[in-house]
Amino acid sequence: MTVRSPVTAPAQPSIRDGFVNGFIAIVVVLFALDTLPCTPPSIRAGIEPLLNTTGLWQGTWTLFAPIPDRRNHRLHATIDFTDGQRKIWNSPDWRSQSPWRRFVGHRETEFLEKVWLEENSHVWPAFAQSLVRSEVETHGSERQPKQVVLSVEWGDIPPPIPGQWTPAAIPIPLDHQQEYFRLLYPEQSE
Q1: Which pLDDT score, from 0 to 100, does residue 61 have?
Q2: What pLDDT shows up at residue 70?
Q3: Residues 39 and 79 in one domain
Q4: d(CA 162, CA 61)
Q5: pLDDT at 189
């Protein structure tokens, strides 16, 4: 005896599926408009608030063209506590990271590359507070912060020498330094 399964019609896409597909299409179009160098400035200005608010912005991809990145940066934070203790935080050193860590931490690296710029000064207080919060949570400390000083050091990458390959293992000296933000905490009364 042969049992046949009933023939069913293909499922019709639901309204939910339509919204999901539409959302995916919108995100892909926004990514394309944000990353393509030929996007007109008027369109870029129109989508920028949406990209910034949602965290979807890609920023400029100037690794190779049209103007490659010519500086290496490292951020530092000096956190002074009211008990006299001091904690130094340094942004991750790209050279000492594994390829996997570089891959999964790329967005954080890009954030740290740009956060110190004047155009991002509105996030400096929150960034400093997050470093203090992370220090307190990591070490289970009850210490009260007194101040946080954010600074950046950088080094200019020399232009390539024709016919000569410079290995990435050779570090670029970071020979410039600048304090860019200081957050003072109010005195705590006991």
Answers
A1: 62
A2: 83
A3: no
A4: 24
A5: 53
Burial environment of residue 53 by CB neighbours within 10 A (0 to 12, 13 to 18, 19 or more): exposed
Output the pLDDT for position 91: 94
Q: Is residue 10 part of a domain?
A: no
Peptide bond into 167 cis (omega under 30): no
Question: Which domain, by its residues, includes 87?
Answer: 71-159+171-184
Rounded Cα distance, 80 and 97, in Å: 28
DSSP label at 11?
A: P
Residues 93 and 177 in one domain: yes
For residue 122, the tally of other CB atoms under 10 A from its CB is: 7
Tokens 């490292």 found at: 74
pLDDT score at 90: 95
Distance CA 182, CA 126 (A): 12
Measured in degrees and rounded to the nearest 5, phi and psi for residue 98 equal -70, 160
| Run means of pLDDT, 10 residues per run, the chain, 190 residues | 62 85 91 82 88 77 66 93 92 88 87 91 95 86 88 90 80 92 80
- Residue 42 in any domain: the answer is yes
Instruction: Say whether 187 sits in a helix, a strand or coil.
Output: coil
Q: What is the DSSP string of 84-106?
A: S-EEEEE---GGGS-HHHHHHTH
Strand partners, 88: 78
Whether residues 85 and 137 fall in one domain: yes
Domain count for the chain = 2
- pTM comes to 0.65
